[in-house]
Amino acid sequence: MSGEQNRTAIVTGAARGIGAATARRLAHDGFAVAVLDLDEQACKSVVAEFESVGGRGLAVGADVSDEEAVTAAVERVASELGAPTVLVNNAGILRDNLLFKMTVTDWDAVMNVHLRGAFLMSRATQKYMTEAKWGRIVNLSSTSALGNRGQVNYSAAKAGLQGFTKTLALELGRFGVTVNAIAPGFIATEMTQATAARMGVSFEELTKTLVERIPVNRPGTPDDIAHAVSFFTSEGASYVSGQVIYVAGGPTT
After folding, report:
1. Alpha carbon of residue 78 to chain centroid
2. Can you tell me the distance from the alpha carbon of 25 to that of 22, in angstroms, rounded to the nearest whole number?
3. Per residue, what are the HEC states of 89-115?
4. Which of 21, 123, 175, 220 is deepest in the core (most CB within 10 A)?
5. Is 16 helix (H, G, I), strand (E, B) or coil?
6. Active-site entry in 128, 154, 239, 246
7. How many CB atoms lie within 10 A of CB 208?
8. CATH of 3-185+221-245 given 3.40.50.620, 3.10.129.10, 3.40.50.720, 2.40.50.140
9. Is 246 a catalytic residue?
10. According to the model, what pLDDT value does residue 131 have?
11. pLDDT single digits (tens) 93-140
């Protein structure tokens, strides 16, 4: 196996959807994987999946926007699974609404999970990466970073993650740490089902409408994103840093 077998990854928001698919993929690649989400119990089934085929994992419950919880979670991973040198900042929530209806609470909640969470997790794990002179951080942005009606908070947070990515790439590159971002387009997950509900349409209707605009003529899947993460965390991607790749089934503007 490759060197990944002795390395540990943390994937946030990994109890389901893109996070769970990413955790499974990284375990397949040979990483020990900490599956982190708010509900530790919900993470255990994901860990059990790859442990059943010889992988190593750990279910961790933590709020990524809570500084003390993040510190404790990362220290636990380092102690029980190994020093984390790969971090996938995937945790995210939606609090969609038009600007004039959006509350400060909804704005803050989205900013706290997406931006504060990525900051806290990256800060807590970077010391292990710099000590190892090797590391990978992958941040989950979105095509919504380009603007999306009813998502001023989410769009701002996802755009912010792109600036965060490029700045960390500048700061951490000399330590052998690469930092990149993936901006998914329409991916069939529970989150996009919630978007359909917010819009007052069925998920099937929303899918049909959006797929008509996608050149590859299908919605994306969590595995599509997991494969992109797999590339960024590989040895072969060591000269790729500070990049944002749009995984959206076609060109974006």
Report:
1. 20
2. 5
3. ECCCCCCCECHHHCCHHHHHHHHHHHH
4. 21
5. coil
6. 154
7. 12
8. 3.40.50.720
9. no
10. 98
11. 999 999 999 999 999 999 999 999 999 999 999 999 999 999 999 999
